[in-house]
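Inputs:
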Amino acid sequence: MSQPVLSIRNLVKRFGGLTAVNDVSLDINPGEVVALLGDNGAGKSTLIKCVSGVHLPDEGEIRFEGKPVSFPKPIDARSAGIETIYQDLALANNLDVPANIFLGREVKHRYLGGLINTLNDKLMLTEAEQSLATLDIQFPSLTQPIESLSGGQRQAVAIARAIYWKARLMIMDEPTNNLGVPEQQKVLELIRRLRDQGVPVILITHTMPDVFAVADRIVVMHRGRKVTEKRTGDTNASELVQYMVGALDDGREVAA
Amino acid sequence: MTDSKAIPAGARLPPEKRFILLASRLWAWAFLGLMIAFFIIVVPLSGGATFLTLRNAMNILVAITPVLLLGLGQTFVIISAGIDLSVGWVMSLASVVSAHAIRASFNAGAPLFLAATLGFLAAVGASAGVGLVNGLIIAKLKVPAFIVTLGSSFIVRGMALLFAENTTVIGLPAEIRDYGNESLFYLVGGEGGGFYAFFRPDVTGAMLRQMDRIFTWPVVITAIVVIICMFILNRTQFGRHTYAIGGNMQAALRTGIPVERHIIKLYMLSSVTAGIAGFLSTLRFTAGSAVIGDPLLLSSIAAVIIGGVSLFGGAGSIIGTVIGALIIAVLTTGLVMMNVQAFWQFIVVGAVVIIAVLIDQSRDLILGRRGRGS
C-alpha cells in the first residue's frame, strides 16, 4: 500500500486536567473514507481540530503526505491542503455560488498596475461551473444568493469549494445532520465521488447508516482513546455501539 | 451506484413569488414615482406653485446632498451588520475643521483654490481619524459598534464645539461661496437667455432671478462620491467582503478574509463621506458649523433603511440609499409646498421608514427565507 496521506502518531491533547485526546495513532490512506465514531465528548472533534489547525497538540506527531507538519492556525492547514467542512458550512447565504467558492480568494482584473482592481465575476462563474461539473452537481442558477438552495445543495457548494482549492484531505463534521433523507443520500454520493477522485475523507458522525454506506474503515473513540479500528466489512452496528459506549475496548484487551 | 444528478434541482421560484420579489425590489422606485405624481397633481390643487419645475428639482438635489453623503458610508457599515451613530457630529467636526483650515490658509496668503483644497484635506483627515479610532475599538476590542459610535459621537460633538469656540466659524473668504453655490450648468430663461456651462453668465436683475443653477458643485461632488461608492460596493473585492461579513461573519473569518482590517476601513469610509458632507456645507454657507450635522443623522439612517439596506446586514445597495434620500426630500418639499404644517413631515417620514421595513420583512416571510447563519 502507498504511503498514508495523513499519519497521526501518539497524539495527546490536554485541557487543564482533562486529557481530551489520549495517545491516539491513526493513518488515512489515499482514496479512502474513514469514519470517526464516538459519543459526545469522546474526543473526536478535538482530534480533528488538532489536524485542522484549531488546536495545537501537546504531544505526538502529525505527518501529512510524509512530512511532519504543525498548523498554528486553521489557515495553515488549509493552505497545506487539509480542508475541514464544519456543520455551519462557512458559506455566506446572501452571496451566490461563485462568490462563495471564491470567498476570500476572489479573482480580480487589475488596472493601472494594480491600483484599481475589479472582481472578475465572469471568470469566477465559469470556474465555479466547471468545479461543480467535475462533481456532477447541477443547480438551476448559480447567480442567485445561496439562501435559496437546500441544505444538501449548500453542502455541495462547500465541498465544491474545497475541491476547487485542491483539498488533498477532506474532513467533514456530521455532513448529513439536519438534512432530509434524499439529501443525505446525495451528500453520501458526493463523498463516494471524492473518494473515487482519490481525495481521502475523514467523516465524523453519529449516524450508523452513513458509516456503512460510505466508510471503508471505522475508527471508534471513547473517552479520548482510540478503542478500535475495523474494516467496514468486518463489523456491524451493534458491535460498534458497544465500542462507543465503552463495553468493548481493543486497547484494554491488548493491555490485559 | 453513481446516478448522474447528484443534487436535485432546487425548486425554481413560482411566478407569484418571483413577482413579489421583483415588487419588493422595485417598490421604492414605484413609491418615489407615485409620490412625485401625487405632488404634481395635489400641490397646485392645494394652492401651491407647480411642483415639477427645474428649480424645484435642483433644490431637492441640493437638499439631499448632506443626508445622502452621510447615508453612503452608512450603507457600507450597515451592510456589514454594523452601525455608525457618530457620522452626524463627524460632519459637524469636519465642517468646523475645514472652515479653520480655509480661513487660516487664505489669511496666510494661499490662493482660494489651494485654501479650499486644504479645507477638504483637513475635513477628510479629521473625519478619517475619528473613523480609525471607531474602527479600531470595534474590530480589535470587540465593543459593539452601537456603543462605540454612540460614545464617540459625544466626544466628537465636544470637539466640534470646542474647535468652533461655540457653534460657528466665520470670517471665511467670501469668494468661497462660489464653490458651494455655483454650478456646472446654468439656464437663463426669458429674452436673451440661454444655456451656459462651467461659468456663470454675467446677468443681473430680473434675468438673474430667472437663472437656474443646474447641478451645483456640491451636487456634482456628491454624484461623484455616489459613483465611486457604487463601484466599490458592486465591483471590488472590498464590496464583496462587506457583504460577506454582513452575511456570515464566521464564514468571512474562516475563509481568511481580513475581517478586522476590513471593519476598520468601513468605519473610516463612513466617517470620510460624512467629512465630505461637512466640507461641502462649509463651502455652501461660507462658515463652519458645529451643529450642522447632528439633525441629519437620523434622516440619513432613515434613507438607508427606506432604500432596502437590512439592519441585520448582508443586503442593500447604494442606489437604494439614493432613492431613500430622494423619497425623504421629495416628501418634505412636497408637503412644504402644500402648506402642510412642517411637523407633519416627521410623521410621514417615520411612517415610510416603518412601512419600508415591513415590506422587506414580508418578502422574507413569503419567500421562506432562511436565517443568515451557516
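Chain B touches chain A at residues 1-10, 12-13, 235-237, 240-241, 243-244, 246-248, 250-252, 254-257, 314-315, 367, 369-374 (CB under 8 Å). Flag for discussion at group meeting.
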